[in-house]
UniProtKB/TrEMBL annotation:
<protein>
    <recommendedName>
        <fullName>Preprotein translocase subunit SecA</fullName>
    </recommendedName>
</protein>
<dbReference type="InterPro" id="IPR004027">
    <property type="entry name" value="SEC_C_motif"/>
</dbReference>
<dbReference type="Pfam" id="PF02810">
    <property type="entry name" value="SEC-C"/>
</dbReference>
<dbReference type="InterPro" id="IPR011990">
    <property type="entry name" value="TPR-like_helical_dom_sf"/>
</dbReference>
Length: 366
């Protein structure tokens, strides 16, 4: 049940004139419009592994995608080898618990139940702050009919991540929805967390209906009304899944920290027209993102550039780093490598500009 995002198609998803009016030449768009039916998962895994060799700083994200493709190709032992490769690396991982959770879910799928359960117990004991490992291990338990353990895991996650949080971040919604689903299958009464899940759920079909344990029987029904109701439920679920899958592919705006921007403009004076000053650069990023949000553009993000990385990208394209037309392509490449941070930051999070202040006290001020 562990979801994996498809490999992105880098074709722009918005008209270039709109993007250039909004943010100049430092914005990229991405959309996942490649059908999974036509993906050669083994080839994609090999491509991602090669890319990880070129960009070791992004190896964690790229090898996780590669492992996902191997799971989809039903080559689960090789996927485990990728997880082990990351866990044994001397380079510290950004999210080691996510890697462990994915490894556990994968191991269980090809018969290594005891090892998977041991890893799951370790993830739960570590109480990570990232919701994703919690969801993965809980759904793994759920998919193997360990419903009570799954319910306990979801509950631990909700208690750890959401106690005294005024507004649940988007990333925590699957914790509440998964907990609601498992408790419905166990026949447990609604509690406060279930009520919160109901309020966060935006589909026209209620969570109680979507998570009804008796739904499986309606699929074999001869009653047209029951079948029509099930089609409505499936459409609602599909809409939710599509929304979730769209989030990793942002309209990404390129951000340069002050030292990097000074080095960039000093080395390539032709780019000074793009960046008159660092203060103006930061202000343009925020105003452009707000303009895009106001126009209805969803899934906005920021990627942070470095001069060595940009120069390496330019070399790979056989172009001069002083060519401003490379900037949106560079932003797209960073986003494809998983470097985009969602905008706006979650409530209470630090500002994207790196000032160390909260977003609401910095560029989030209205």
């Amino acid at each position: 049940m562990t979801p994996h995002a498809p490999t992105p198609d880098l074709t722009p998803g918005l008209p270039i004139p709109l993007l250039r009016r909004a943010v100049g030449s430092t914005v990229s768009t991405m959309r996942p419009d490649t059908s999974a039916e036509y993906v050669d998962h083994n080839a994609e895994a090999a491509r991602l592994e090669r890319t990880a060799g070129l960009y070791p700083e992004d190896a964690e994200h790229l090898l996780l995608q590669a492992a996902a493709h191997l799971e989809l190709a039903d080559d689960r032992p090789r996927a485990t080898a990728f997880y082990d490769r990351l866990l044994s690396s001397e380079t510290p991982l950004e999210n080691p618990f996510l890697v462990r959770a994915l490894k556990a879910a994968n191991l269980w799928e090809y018969g290594h139940e005891a090892e998977a359960k041991a890893i799951i117990a370790g993830v739960r004991a570590a109480s990570p702050r990232d919701p994703a490992p919690w969801v993965i291990v809980a759904e793994s338990l759920e998919s193997h009919d360990e419903l009570e353990a799954a319910q306990q895991t979801f509950t631990e996650a909700a208690t750890h991540l959401l106690t005294d949080v005024p507004e649940p971040p988007y990333a925590t919604h699957p914790v509440l929805f998964g907990r609601h689903r498992v408790r419905r299958m166990l026949g447990l009464p609604h509690d406060n967390w279930d009520a919160l899940a109901d309020t966060l759920h935006s589909s026209p079909v209620s969570l109680d209906e979507l998570h009804d344990p008796k739904r499986v029987w309606s699929l074999g029904s001869d009653n047209p009304a029951e079948l029509e109701a099930e089609i409505s439920r499936l459409r609602a679920e599909l809409g939710t899944y599509r929304e979730a899958l769209s989030r990793p592919f942002p309209v990404a705006v390129l951000h340069w920290p002050a030292p990097e921007l000074a080095e960039l403009v000093s080395a390539y004076p032709s780019l000074a027209a793009e960046y008159p000053s660092h203060e103006e650069h930061l202000a343009t990023i925020e105003s452009s993102l707000r303009e895009l949000a106001a126009s209805g553009t969803p899934n906005l993000g920021i990627v942070t550039g470095t001069v060595p990385s940009y120069e390496a990208f330019a070399a790979s394209e056989g172009a001069s780093p002083g060519d401003a037309s490379l900037l949106p392509q560079y932003a797209t490449t960073l986003a494809a490598r998983g470097r985009a941070e969602a905008w706006p930051p979650e409530r209470g999070a630090s500002c994207w500009c790196g000032s160390g202040r909260g977003y609401g006290e910095c560029h989030g001020l209205t």
